[in-house]
Amino acid sequence: MNIDENYVKLLKIYAAVVESNGIANAQARLNKDASTISRAITQLEKRLQLTLCNRGRSGFEVTPEGSLVYEESLKLFTGFRGFEKRVESLSGKGLQSLSIGIIDNVITDPNCPLLLAIKQYCADSHPDVMLNIGVQTPHELEKQLLDKRIDMALGIFESKHDAISYTPIYQETDYLYCAVDSDLGKKIQTENTDGNIFDWLNGQNFVSRNFLKETDLIELNLETYGHVTYTENLEAMMFLILSGQYIGFIPQHYADSFEKQGILIPVLPKQFFHISVVEAAHLTRDETLRNVIGQFFKQLK
């Protein structure tokens, strides 16, 4: 099989469609219309002589053969990226790239060294290095590290992968919050007894970031909970908390602006807080393999 440039292009389009769960969802990601994407998949199917996916009124569904082609495509892309980065590292010449993945809303944390590291790295004159930064969940960051789609990640990793190295960078403190105009918020503003406030927490609806794996729920240690829901990012959590129907642990740096607006209030902050360690993660072998990663990592620490 001849793997030419057009073949790889078709595979990338197909992979994007699979990851987007359909042609319609992939249009914005690929910046192509549905008919163009559909034609590309049809071309790939003819070339492979396989049916990769079912698409039509019944919805989008990947076939068993399509799943295998998708998995093998990821391995191919990973091999290409690995080759490019190895050659960059060996030559030390030409435009290099450094892709960094982060969890959401770390920019509001004064303890986060990422912005300072970027400034210092750029000030040290690295004109041949192109920086790319993206926001994902910790699970997706680890997946992208393993697939070599990113070089380094900054996040909270409750579970660890054997092929990834993790280095603690700083701590993030979360406090329990509720909306000022919620029933609980109104009681907090008029009640000075911590015991009464604690009793009111029983039965409250709770929202949590799913990657914390309920470590924040353990901090509460309540007798009863109302509905417990999980989100992937802080903005979604804040919408639910400000609705007045949920309580949850929010990083202080992110909650600060909402407190100043008078719409968010901490719940027993001396008693209920959760500390997470924010870590820098990279593939174990990559720090020595690519000098560009090691240089930035030194700035981050």
TrEMBL record:
Superkingdom of the organism of origin: Bacteria
InterPro entries: LysR_HTH_N, LysR_subst-bd, WH-like_DNA-bd_sf, WH_DNA-bd_sf
Keyword tags: DNA-binding, Transcription, Transcription regulation
Example of a GO MF term: DNA-binding transcription factor activity
Domain HTH lysR-type residue range list: 1-63
Family named by the database record: Belongs to the LysR transcriptional regulatory family.
Name of the protein: LysR family transcriptional regulator
Organism name: Hydrogenovibrio thermophilus
